[in-house]
Amino acid sequence: MVTQHQRDRLFPWLALVAAIVATALIWFMAARHRRLVSWAVGLDVLVIGCLLPFGAYAWGGARTQESIAWVMLLGGSASAMAAVAFGARLLAVAVMLLVATHLAGYLLVEADASVTGAHLNAVVFSAVVSWVLTWYLCRQGERVDSANRRALAAEAQRARFAERVAHHNALHDTVLATLTAIARGGVDANTSMMRERCAREAAYLRRLVEQADDREQASELRAALEESVRAAEALGLRVSARYHELPAVPGEIALAMARAVTESLNNVRCHAGTGHAFLTAAGDSGRLIVTVVDRGRGFAVEGAGGEGAGGSAGAETSGGSVVRTAPVRRSGIGLDRSVYARMRGVGGRAFVDSAPGEGVRVELRWPA
């Protein structure tokens, strides 16, 4: 309309630019806030929907219904936007304001009653249809969200039941079997082997109690670490494990961390000369830190200045003492491949601190 009949007037072009800018502002704010912003839509209703028709009449030379019609059409889009962005009361005010101003605009140009009625009906109908569609889509979205919540709750319940069954089976095969054997007098409870077995199973029960008291921790990570601990205990190693505020991590991170823990516990069992290891897993400002410590014979860390897990390692100070973090190369210990390389592969890092007679401390960090 502007290019065909009003190309020689400045105001129609300014009005067209204003309409484009108002629309761009609405969608820019919607993309930024992930919803239609009320003030931007209100500005569109007032300026483009209500004031622009009078400006077209006063300065744009719009004296007929044909010349002012293109400005009036913008009122329909303004009412549709208002239906999406506003509540019921504010929408009613916006629609009445649009109807009143557009009626006055058509009366100024002495438009036909049929044209005026059809246009006002379109303004109201646009608002009603947009409001109904918005209400319907929101209602369907709420139903989908509710169904997802029910599905997640059911899945969590199934997971808890499976976990409970697994714990019951483990208790039956370990603690209950040990207590039954002692009660029947079939074994001597004072032997060192039986005391070690009781200590391992007491540690397992302690972890179950702690887990029951802290259900909000990252279950996937904890389950993976607990599997490594149980595997080591099945081979005769007693493990005292503690978990504190574990962060949620991707499944591949939990798996890599658990396998590195498995290797560290195997090293304790095979090389440390002690039957007891200590595992601690905790979150620290979004970082996961897992340590495996033993009080065994220890060893001399070689290559102090070589490459550690995830970068160059050297001596690090902690409270004034030297922490040895260089890679370890000792026959029978697969730290390079099973710990350092595995942690590097997932963006983490591993550190070892040891000295002859002082035990070993393996620290796993993710991210590095």
Automatic annotation (TrEMBL):
Keyword annotations from UniProtKB, A to Z: Coiled coil, Kinase, Membrane, Transferase, Transmembrane, Transmembrane helix, Two-component regulatory system
Gene3D superfamilies the UniProt entry points to: Histidine kinase-like ATPase, C-terminal domain
Coiled-coil intervals, chain numbering: 208-235
GO terms of molecular function: kinase activity
Database matches in InterPro entries: HATPase_C_sf, Sensor_HK_TwoCompSys
TM stretches of this protein: 12-30, 36-59, 71-98, 118-138
Name the record gives this protein: Sensor histidine kinase
Protein species of origin: Streptomyces sindenensis
